[in-house]
Write a structure and sequence with these properties.
Layout: H1 19-34, E1 39-45, H2 52-66, E2 70-76, H3 82-89, E3 94-96, E4 99-103, H4 107-119, E5 125-133, H5 137-150, E6 153-157, H6 160-170, E7 175-176, E8 195-200, E9 222-225, H7 231-236, H8 240-256, H9 260-266, H10 270-274, H11 277-293, E10 295-300, H12 303-312, E11 316-318, H13 325-334, E12 340-342, H14 346-361
Helix pairs in contact: 2-11, 8-9, 11-12
């Protein structure tokens, strides 16, 4: 892997019209970016209740498996150990999990990205499909300096807007790729339908929140949720193995973050913790699939609310997030998929959702 673009920063001439076609594009872009590598490290596992990020991780794992690429080192954002990584993969590429955290909104994931670039100068680093957003130009300039000093960084981005930001702010020529959650392919509903409309949207205080007009008490056919609400209840319903893995991760993370003494204690446990990532990811994704699957129609301003609905075949209405990554992804990749509808405001989204209910009933 060198420093040139992994593939042309242009979406297909005609938008893919199926989840399977988008998955094929993601696989092919990844194969080009890997440039023949057969062994990799995969960093930045997201152990949290937003199912989009674990879906990205699991989709990446599925794409790598299809390409015959072995992942010989895995870590979360908090337990990446450059020395252990080098022992496991040598000079092989380091893959950074995709998502929407390349920028200065989410310090933990960005901090790990910067650390990998600073401390693993002899490993090519491939950032899997991301959205790029910096609020502070100084933070973008700092990353551009680290990228230039590393010399072996490649970047995949999810939409045209991030192509422009990567070029102008980071000095990088990126490649366009669909989000890696699509690596999971088409999905089946996990629970029976029990509600007419699910309104899945960010709450005030979320850095990506937009204050849309939202359903009120009079909108009795609408259920209002956020991914991260109800997490404790969801965990309580997990099987014994899932609850044990969550406790192990929590205990090791606590010791790791305690400083040098904690890291020395926790480092030997990393091999055990790493084996829990995929099973935990599957449980987090199932939490999201259950929420969506129980709904006839969904309204969402979350990118993976949109993508998972498309993968499940659920009619849905898409609102944008604060910096435009949702609409940019729809424009670049997903606008031609069945069941995808756009809205500019909350009342318009609700009107479209009710129209879809009527059409479905008819």
């Amino acid at each position: 892997m060198g420093t040139s673009a992994a593939a042309s920063a242009a979406a297909p001439a005609s938008a893919p019209r199926s989840v399977e076609a988008l998955r094929d594009v993601a696989r092919d872009v990844l194969a080009t970016a890997l440039d023949g590598a057969r062994t990799v490290a995969l960093v930045n596992f997201p152990n949290h209740g937003n199912p989009g990020d674990p879906a990205i991780w699991l989709g990446t794992r599925a794409l790598l498996a299809e390409l015959g690429v072995r992942v010989r080192y895995r870590s979360a954002w908090w337990d990446t150990d450059p020395r252990a990584l080098r022992r496991a993969v040598g000079d092989a590429p380091v893959l950074l999990n995709g998502g929407g955290n390349l920028g200065d909104l989410y310090a933990g994931q960005q901090g790990t990205r910067m650390r990998v670039l600073r401390e693993l100068r002899h490993n090519p680093v491939l950032q899997l499909p991301q959205s790029v957003h910096f609020r502070d130009p100084a933070n973008a300039a700092a990353m551009a300096d680290v990228v230039a000093a590393h010399g072996g960084f490649r970047l995949l981005v999810r939409e045209h807007a991030s192509v422009t930001r990567a070029r102008e702010q980071l000095g990088v020529e990126p490649a366009l790729s669909p989000d890696h959650a699509l690596g999971l392919g088409r999905l089946a509903r996990t629970v029976p339908v029990t509600r007419p409309v699910l309104w899945l949207a960010r709450r005030p205080g979320d850095p990506e929140h937009v204050p849309y007009d939202e359903p009120g008490p009079e909108d009795a056919d609408v259920t209002r949720v956020e991914w991260m609400e109800g997490i404790a209840a969801a965990q309580a319903g997990w099987d014994r193995a899932g609850r044990w893995m969550l406790r192990v991760n929590g205990a090791v993370a606590h010791r790791w973050r305690a400083g040098d003494d904690g890291v020395r204690w926790a480092r030997p446990a990393h091999a055990v913790v790493a084996r829990t990532y995929d099973p935990l990811g599957r449980r987090w994704v199932r939490h999201g699939l259950d929420l969506l699957s129980g709904s006839r129609v969904v309204v969402t301003d979350k990118l993976h609310g949109h993508l998972l609905c498309a993968m499940l075949g659920i009619p849905h209405v898409v609102l944008d997030n604060a910096y435009g990554k949702v609409s940019a992804t729809v424009e670049t990749w997903t606008h031609a998929l069945p069941g995808v509808h756009l809205a500019a405001d909350g009342r318009g989204a609700l009107a479209t959702a009710r129209r879809l209910l009527t059409e479905e009933a008819g």
